[in-house]
Amino acid sequence: MTGPDRVDVLMPAPMAPDVINAVEQDFTLHRLWEQPDPDRYLAAVAARIRGMAVGGAAGRIDGRWFDRLPALEIVAHFGVGYETIDATDAAARGIVVTNTPGVLDEEVADLTIGLMLATLRLLPQADRFVRAGDWRQGPFPLSPSLRGRRVGILGLGAIGKAVARRLDGFDVAIAYHGRSRQPEVAYAYHDSPAALAAVSDVLIAIVPGSAGTRHLVDTAVLGALGAQGVFINVARGSVVDQDALIAALQQGTILAAGLDVYEDEPNVPVSLRALPNTVLLPHIGSASKRTRAAMGGLVVDNLREWFETGRALTPVAETPNPG
Ligand code: NAP
Ligand code: 8YV
To answer: Which residues are catalytically annotated?
Structure first.
């Protein structure tokens, strides 16, 4: 795509340098965050913008953007979870929304297993113990174990299944909850998060963030998980009632938690950071160089494919007619 026919693509906030460079190769890229007066700049170029490339830093992409961009055809999102985009409103206006499924499932599943083991076997605590020179005073305390535990997966989708495949090799019982039973799946199905928690010693949340999943894990679910229970959240912070989780960890309602996601990232409450029975990661589920490059590649490929063929590669479920 060269010359006067180059398509105009808006990037409201900075994305990875590789994504910026790749978009710039094929499109006229508008870097809104670099403009001294973004509002005025947008007013000047809005009528030409046919594509948007966005990640979490762009904030909420909804009718307020769509109203201002009358020629917008596609919003290409970096990340599989796209709760920051009003995809229903986009669909109603005929705007395609794409996300980045498929290229990060295995990476996020690897991280989930690592976080689960780190939380159970106290790996960060053990590392700090050695660094502090405390080993010379005596051995590190014995940890809880994965042996004999039952693992519940809240959200047996693409990533949940990749987690389950790994857990198959750990010789643990696996069960799941989703809104629907999956007949082709052999793992035990439970029809509510509380029912799943009641038969689990480790509960792993990997559902999308949405109104429907908000506080799916609440006081009752944590109570059902029980005093030896471990909660792992690699989904979204909104999926768990964070205050209820902190209380459950403080009071021993559950044993421990391993968290990659939080209610108000990057702000993690002091009360959570102070808890010794947590392992806290800064939302790094997909954050390897290899996988982030693949995600960025898919963002750009979606834009290219749409403007070359009129079809998007990975449209989200709400997009009714992706080409
Ligand atoms: P997916 O393939 O769409 O699977 C989502 C699963 O959640 C489905 O099995 C679905 O089953 C279940 N689900 C959806 N709504 C539900 C509800 N209201 N109650 C119970 N279960 C529900 O998605 P995915 O690719 O596995 O990704 C899942 C999420 O992981 C993403 O949306 C994102 O938020 C998060 N994520 C986090 C990281 C990280 O870095 N930590 C990285 C990637 C993704 P039913 O339809 O049967 O309910
Ligand atoms: C990314 C994620 O960290 O894909 C997702 O839904 O949560 C992660 O892979 C995030 O989208 C990048 O901002």
So the answer is: 236, 265, 283
Atom index in ligand 2 nearest the CA of residue 108 equals 9
Nearest-angstrom CA–CA distance, 279 and 187: 27
Q: Is 258 in the pocket of ligand 2 (CB under 6 A)?
A: no
Phi, psi of 205 (to 5 degrees): -95, 125
Proximal ligand: closest to the CA of 221: 1
- Tell me which residue of 97, 86, 111 sits closest to 206, measured CA to CA: 111
**pLDDT value of residue 151:** 99
Nearest-angstrom CA–CA distance, 222 and 236 = 17
3-class SS at 68?
helix
Rounded to the nearest whole angstrom, what is the distance from the C-alpha of residue 2 to the centroid of ligand 1? 39
Classify strands 74-77 and 49-54 as parallel, antiparallel or unpaired. parallel
**CB 178 near ligand 1, within 6 Å:** yes
| Mean pLDDT, the chain cut into blocks of 10 residues (323 residues total) | 74 97 97 98 98 96 98 98 98 98 98 99 98 98 98 98 98 98 98 98 98 98 98 98 98 98 98 98 98 98 97 96 69
Q: Which ligand is nearest to the CA of 80?
A: 2
**Residue 122: both structure tokens together:** 């106290």
Element at 21 (helix H, strand E): helix 17-26
pLDDT the model gives residue 320: 83
Candidate of 283, 288, 298 to mutate for ligand 2, largest count of ligand atoms within 8 Å of Cβ:
283
